[in-house]
Amino acid sequence: MKDQFVEKMYERTKKPYQKYFKRNTPWDIDKTKLLSYPKDSLGYGLGNFLYKNHLDIQPKLEDHDIIHVLTNTGISVPEEIGMQYYLLGNGKKSMYLFLVILSGTLFYPAKVRYFLQQFRKGYQAHSFYYLNFLNMLNMPIPAIQKTFKI
After folding, report:
1. How many whole angstroms separate alpha carbon 109 and alpha carbon 126?
2. b/e per residue, 32-59, with b = 16+ CB within 10 A?
3. How far apart are CA 49 and CA 66, in angstroms?
4. CA distance 57 to 43
5. Within 13 Å and on the Cβ side, how many CA atoms surround 17?
6. What is the largest CA-CA distance in the chain?
7. Which of these, 13, 21, 82, 115, is most buried using a 10 Å CB contact count?
8. pLDDT by residue (tens digit) across 42-85?
């Protein structure tokens, strides 16, 4: 029940966030094109992640799914919140991130240990959340993970 509530909150805030806070240009690419990248590449990994989870690319939010791929994070509500903790540990700061962390911590107090573990992982990795991932789609995922200690 609380998962559904949190997902509804996300769906209601996603469009205004995309429109008013995300300044980047949407990627001109689709899932099919992503799957034409080499098998170990970030592009292929993103396409595979989207297909496997029955998702589509969300304009201006492409980096979010890239972070899922690089950190091997699932898409359950607690995992999504954990990924925001990871990003906080990695140095990202945004109003949206803080809202997710605050609401997530309140809704999932039993997951605080997991959230803190994710924060520590993000803190231990080299800062990577700000990279231009569109220019990295041909790069092998293991090389990116090794370089940034993800």
Report:
1. 28
2. eebeebeeebbbbbbbbbbeeeeeebee
3. 9
4. 12
5. 17
6. 42
7. 82
8. 999 999 999 999 999 988 789 999 999 999 999 999 999 999 99
Low-confidence ranges of the chain (pLDDT < 50): none
Listing DSSP states for 83-121 in one string gives HHHHHHHTT---HHHHHHHHHHHHH-GGGHHHHHHHHHH
- Closest-CA residue to 78 (of 108, 54, 100): 108
Token pair of 43, please?
Answer: 């592009």
Domain boundaries, the chain: 2-148
As a whole number of angstroms, the distance between CA 95 and CA 6 comes to 17
